[in-house]
Amino acid sequence: MTDNRTWLVTGAGGMLGQDVLARLAQAGERYAALDRAALDLTDADAVSAALDEHRPAVVVNCAAWTAVDDAETREDEALAINGDGPRHLAEACARTGAVLLHVSTDYVFAGDAQEPYAEDAPTAPRSAYGRTKLVGEKAVLGIERGYVVRTAWLYGTGGPNFVRTMIKLEGVKDTLDVVDDQRGQPTWTVDLADRLVRLGQAALAGTAPAGVYHGTSGGETTWFGLTREIFRLLGTDPERVRPTTSAAFARPAPRPAYSVLGHNRWQQAGIEPIRDWSESLSCAMPVLVAELQEGNP
After folding, report:
1. Which pTM value belongs to this model?
2. How many CA atoms lie within 13 A of 195 on its CB side?
3. How far apart are alpha carbons 169 and 172 in whole angstroms?
4. 129 catalytic, yes or no?
5. Contact in structure between 32 and 58 (CB atoms under 8 Å)
């Protein structure tokens, strides 16, 4: 253990939250883990009481409403979790002096850029989900020790995600039609968890300025390109994956056509950005395949 400080992880039962806990344990940090059942972020009094009980030096907020399509018709409910929740945490952290690391999303941008979005690029969300996440960002950035880490295209163990779905479909589908007109950065939760812990440590050391950081992998690809690489790593024919357009999979919420984020801010914190997406995927695949072979849903 590095010292007597404690970290508090909210949304600890989720895919990212589980990896943050594992990374904290690896780093020898003491932590308290609160899942959705243990802490209702929409309850300001409960949030305040949780910080008083645990007295964390760092709070990592992995809790979120992530049902992008459902948010279109249930925006008030999404806002309570994505907007009010971070605000309650920010108010409690400002009162206690804790560092707040809040995980946000590429959906705060319009998704129509031609080059990677810088951390200070103008936001212009086009979906209810994006709007609610932006409200949360503003609350966190309004406090002195507030950090927003935007991520995108997350995959890992312990929860449903695109990569796990494609691994499963490879075994039951002769061919797959996958969208080729959305560009982004597939990001392994293990890599993001590592950067969150290192950022929190740097914040405590006074070497990381507060503000926005982009926690996505390097490089870029499409869902089609990602799926072909998944098939290649599985040892099967990537030609079984065929390109299609977003129009073939109409959804209630608009998907960003371009979700590539820039990573320049990490240099100010003395932390290297996450490696290239393809390198991460090659490391993650054996872990994901093993999880599925064990029968986890």
Report:
1. 0.97
2. 29
3. 5
4. yes
5. no
Pairing between β-strand 187-188 and β-strand 154-155 as defined by DSSP bridges: parallel
- Name the average pLDDT for the chain: 96
From CA 87, how far away is CA 44, in angstroms rounded?
9
Q: Which of 129, 155, 213, 258 is catalytic?
A: 129
Residue 2 confidence (pLDDT) above 70 = no
How far is residue 154 from each of residues 94, 138, 204, 210, measured CA to CA in Å? 29, 22, 26, 23
The third-level CATH classification (topology) of the domain covering 6-155+187-218+260-275 is Rossmann fold (3.40.50)
Residue with tokens 């400080």: 5
Picking from 179, 187, 180, 215, the residue whose alpha carbon sits closest to that of residue 279 is 187
Residue ranges of the domains in the chain? Answer: 6-155+187-218+260-275
- Beta bridge partners, 221, equal 184
* Whole-angstrom distance, CA of residue 147 vs CA of residue 183: 26
pLDDT class of 295 with cuts at 50, 70, 90? confident
Residue 173: the pLDDT is: 96
What digits encode the pLDDT tens for the residues 215-274? 999 999 999 999 999 999 999 999 999 999 999 988 999 999 999 999 999 999 999 999
Q: What angle do CA 43, 13, 142 make, to 5 degrees?
A: 45
Nearest one of 58, 97, 69, 63 to 83, comparing CA atoms: 63
